[in-house]
Automatic annotation (TrEMBL):
Belongs to the glucosamine/galactosamine-6-phosphate isomerase family. 6-phosphogluconolactonase subfamily. Residues 8-215 form the Glucosamine/galactosamine-6-phosphate isomerase domain. Signal peptide: none annotated. It comes from Algoriphagus aestuariicola. It is an enzyme of class 3 (hydrolase). InterPro entries: 6-phosphogluconolactonase_DevB, 6PGL, Glc/Gal-6P_isomerase, NagB/RpiA_transferase-like. Its EC number is 3.1.1.31. NCBIfam families: pgl. It catalyses: 6-phospho-D-glucono-1,5-lactone + H2O = 6-phospho-D-gluconate + H(+). Hydrolysis of 6-phosphogluconolactone to 6-phosphogluconate. This is 6-phosphogluconolactonase. PANTHER family: 6-PHOSPHOGLUCONOLACTONASE (PTHR11054:SF0). Pathway: Carbohydrate degradation; pentose phosphate pathway; D-ribulose 5-phosphate from D-glucose 6-phosphate (oxidative stage): step 2/3.
Length: 230
């Protein structure tokens, strides 16, 4: 695992955008497309804005969600709502290849299956080129929540949480799909994340993030979050 530390969250966001842009160019040159799953969060929205400033062949980029709250379309709790807000007034084309998690479906289990099938159809292998992750102060990542039955899912690439978390049930990519990604990019900012970053680096199995593969992984973080690394 590679770790790079910067002075501020804004620097982390810019570096993450540059890193993703390089991976987009590299993968498109190699195989013609780039597939990525994006998590939510304050710094990631800055990252997306910075990424939008890059001159890239967006028609060959396919964006998926790492997780989503079960909430109505356009609701401020939705990661998709915040994603669209982050790319307002950017130079991105109006028709991006974005694949939203269908969390307003009547049959959410079927929606999970269909989302998995969409990933497999676009990637052909089911293996995403890059998955972007963050970490919570409780050690969760994606919507892999401490103590939730979703942590035990090994036979599905996309699943629902068994209990509400912060007031919402969620749809999430699971360990099997995340751990086979070609690249995993962690974006971790804020001093409140220091303990969990240290536990992540030590692959602490007691936190969900500690069970993510560290092969082909890079962490971009700021100094305040890295103070507890030992």
């Amino acid at each position: 695992m590679e770790i790079r530390t910067f002075q501020s969250a804004s620097e982390v966001a810019k570096e993450a955008a540059d890193y993703i842009a390089d991976r987009i160019r590299e993968n498109i040159a190699k195989k013609g497309i780039f597939t990525m799953a994006i998590s939510g969060g304050r710094t990631p929205w800055e990252m997306i804005k910075a990424l939008a400033a890059h001159d890239l062949p967006w028609e060959k980029v396919f964006l998926f969600q790492v997780d989503e709250r079960i909430a109505p379309d356009g609701h401020p709790d939705r990661n998709l709502t915040q994603l669209f807000k982050s790319i307002e007034d950017t130079k991105l084309p109006t028709r991006l290849n974005i694949f939203p998690m269908h969390v307003v479906a009547e049959d959410l289990d079927q929606a999970c299956l269909e989302y998995s099938e969409s990933i497999r159809r676009i990637t052909e292998t089911g293996k995403l080129d890059l998955i972007h992750l963050g970490i919570g102060t409780d050690g969760h990542t994606a919507s892999l929540i401490p103590g939730d039955e979703v942590l035990q899912v090994v036979d599905r690439d996309v699943a629902l949480t068994g209990n509400p978390y912060q007031g919402r049930y969620r749809m999430t990519l699971t360990y099997p799909l995340i751990n086979q990604a070609e690249k995993i990019l962690w974006v971790i900012t804020g001093e409140e994340k220091a303990e969990m970053l240290n536990r992540l680096l030590h692959q602490d199995p007691a936190i969900p993030a500690g069970n993510i593969s560290q092969e082909h992984t890079i962490i971009l973080t700021e100094e305040s979050a890295a103070v507890s690394i030992n």
